[in-house]
Design a protein that fits this description.
It is a single chain. The protein is of the alpha+beta class and about 130 residues long. It has a single domain, classed as OB fold (Dihydrolipoamide Acetyltransferase, E2P) (Beta Barrel). Helix content is about 20%, strand content about 35%. A six-stranded antiparallel β-sheet has the order 1-2-3-9-8-5. It has a three-stranded antiparallel β-sheet with strand order 4-6-7. The protein starts with a strand and ends with a helix.
Length: about 130
């Protein structure tokens, strides 16, 4: 797995130059259960860090997806429209949600690395 960063709201971000690929974590998808619907942001949307920008619905609940970084949506994973369960099956690969062109690279330093996120999840699930 490439260098992935995480948020306290259980999104993951893989940064490739000025592009951020965004999805929900394995922990988030396992807590949600079977995902049946995804509402993705529109191409060209300007999104702000920590603001809701997508929705993931499961058989248990609907959950907001929060922008881990500010930027402009440049691509969405349209495969999820017909196969939302890809998020359950492959949250860090085929189940990505959208890509943004990063507006403020300084925000990256506010994200958690894998080890800090793992500790965060362990504390949260006690």
């Amino acid at each position: 797995m490439a260098d992935i960063k995480f948020t306290k709201t259980h999104e993951w971000v893989k940064i490739e130059n000025s592009i951020a690929i965004v999805g929900i974590t394995d922990y988030a998808q396992s807590e949600l259960g079977d995902i049946v619907f995804v509402e993705l942001p529109s191409l060209g949307n300007k999104i702000a860090k920590n603001m809701p920008c997508a929705t993931v619905e499961s058989t248990k609940a609907a959950s907001e997806v929060y922008a881990p970084l500010s930027g402009e949506v440049i691509e969405i994973n349209s495969e999820l429209n017909n196969n939302p369960q890809l998020i359950n099956e492959s949250p860090y690969d085929k189940g990505w949600l959208f890509k943004i062109k990063i507006a403020n690279r300084e925000e990256i330093s506010q994200l958690m690395d894998k080890d800090i996120y793992k500790e965060f999840v362990e504390k949260e699930s006690r």
